[in-house]
Amino acid sequence: MDTQTELATHFDKSRKHLRAVAFRMLGSADEAEDAVQDAWLRASHSGAEGVSNVTAWLTTIVARICLDMLRSRRRRGEEFTDIAELDSIIAHEDCDPAEEAVRADSVGLALLVVLNTLGPAERVAYVLHDLFSVPFDEIAEILQRNTAAAKKLASRARHRVLGTDAVPSGDLARQRQVVDAFLAASRAGDLTGLLAVLHPEVVRRADAPALASHGRTEIRGARDVARETLSNTVRAYLARPILVNGGVGVVVAPNGRLRLVLALTIEDDRITAVDVISDPTRLRELRLSLVEPVPVS
After folding, report:
1. Minimal CA–CA distance to 104: which of 268, 241, 214?
2. Separation between Cα atoms, residue 56 and residue 185, nearest integer Å
3. How far is CA 8 from CA 5, 31, 61, 190, in A?
4. Phi/psi at 133 (nearest 5 deg)?
5. Angle at Cα 295 formed by Cα 36 and Cα 255, nearest 5°?
């Protein structure tokens, strides 16, 4: 076989790995596929003559393409969508909630949300090193920084991804149990289950973008809050636990794009307050991090 045929064969064998790298960097399956296709065009044009590790070389090409795409995205500005449009977005994307939930868990939806809060260089450094074990000297070359700078970028990103708990680990575990029960009941349409985790005097507050056209900014009482929660079953399938300012909360992020955060106040294993946040400015001010280990490829 000639060199081009061998390269094509190797690229096909590496495609799954390259797509995984691109997806975690970009958080979009379509953009990841575009990046992989662009990498093939660049690789086939330049050729792999003299390359000892073709997979590493292809990974570097994909990473550089993703870095450029992330920088371009940042210059354009993050696009937020009112939560009132969420159901139409899901319908337009022909999304089955259960299938979307499985797809999100396979990658780590909360991880994608947190990665979206990182700068382009931080994200590339973290994904390549912590998720795919790429050496820092190779990362430094991609970022056009020295090795020490690449290490600092990954360390800073790691700190933001893992976060700092605002409550003791034991209390955090109990909060997680409450949130898991809240989400399970929401998805199952279980009114009794919701009432079991909501404090009788629970209050739900929501900012304007999070409300439907005739929605109330504040609802009080477990039964009314539970009924409203059960009216949003589709969103419940897309919801995942996340640390919000150090405590366990909930994020709704179809395809990894942040739309909605529930900041929960939990006391004595009951939810006493639910703050529904969808305003872009407020979302940017939240400190979001993972509540569970990072999925590693």
Report:
1. 241
2. 45
3. 5, 21, 15, 52
4. 55, 35
5. 55
**Burial annotation 198-222 (CB, 10 A radius, 16+ → b, else e):** bbeebbbbbbebbbeeeeeeebeeb
Q: How far is CA 51 from the centre of its chain?
A: 34
Model pTM score: 0.77
Q: Find residue 77's DSSP bridge partners.
A: none
3-state SS of the chain: helix, strand, coil percent to 5? 60, 15, 25
State the pLDDT at residue 295: 55
Please list, in sequence order, all residues whose beta carbon lies within 8 angstroms of the beta carbon of residue 42, skipping any fewer than 6 positions away. Answer: 61, 65
- Residue 266 and residue 273: Cα distance in Å, rounded? 7
**Chain segment 104-143, per-residue pLDDT in tens:** 454 477 888 888 889 999 999 999 999 999 999 999 999 9
**Would you state the pLDDT for residue 274?**
96
Strand segments (E) across 78-155 = none
- Per DSSP, the residues of 22-49 read HHHHHS-HHHHHHHHHHHHHHHHHH--T
What's the CA gap between 183 and 109, in Å, rounded? Answer: 15
The DSSP line for 243-288 is EETTEEEEEE-GGG---EEEEEEEETTEEEEEEEE--HHHHHHS-E
Separation of alpha carbons 205 and 253, rounded Å = 20
CA distance 25 to 67: 8
pLDDT band, residue 226 (cuts 50/70/90): very high
Residue whose tokens read 């640390």: 243
- Give the integer Cα–Cα distance in Å for 123 and 294: 14
Token pair belonging to 220: 């009080």
Q: Where are the beta strands (DSSP E) in the chain?
A: 198-206, 218-220, 239-244, 247-252, 260-267, 270-277, 288-289
